Amino acid sequence: xxxxxxxxxxxxxxxxxxxxxxxxxxxxxxxxxxxxxxxxxxxxxxxxxxxxxxxxxxxxxxxxxxxxxxxxxxxxxxxxxxxxxxxxxxxxxxxxxxxxxxxxxxxxxxxxxxxxxxxxxxxxxxxxxxxxxxxxxxxxxxxxxxxxxxxxxxxxxxxxxxxxxxxxxxxxxxxxxxxxxxxxxxxxxxxxxxxxxxxxxxxxxxxxxxxxxxxxxxxxxxxxxxxxxxx
Length: 231
Description:
Layout: E1 8-14, H1 49-55, E2 60-65, H2 69-81, E3 85-91, H3 103-106, H4 111-114, E4 115-118, E5 125-126, E6 132-136, E7 143-147, H5 148-151, H6 166-173, E8 184-191, H7 197-209, H8 214-222
């Protein structure tokens, strides 16, 4: 569905647990997570929903936090306004079955070092007094977090949400901690324009109808070369 760029907005409320069905582990639970369905700890390596959406080439992909009303509202407005496949992951705490899963992001004492803010056109910098930043990792071709003082301001990646190649945004998504969540990029990873499947289908239908007599065209299609009469 995302690959064909249907005009659809998907909201994924991620609390890293199946809270609505009484607390089984989910595909985003960390390895070792003890739940009713994994009493000795989860064995599954959690997948990254943002990476998955970017791999499917969704044209709008973002991540936000339920408790940050201003950021959440801005991201949802942008997703709703986007023409095409929009995917938004929302970190949401489950106080009953997985309380504290996002404490690093929500605690004022740790959030500045835990949240990597993505703002189009700005260097990716975060942490207390902006001492941390994101640079290209020449060895892997991806990205890594460094001390800004060690590399200099000019080495920082300037975020480009409008880059057509999704591999750039995918690389940023891999900065998300895979286990216990201590750090993750938050914001719009990708926002590009592309023709949508449903718009193209309507255009094709209009083109077919503009060819003349609709009834004649329908009968021609029904009685085409692949039909025959049975005596």
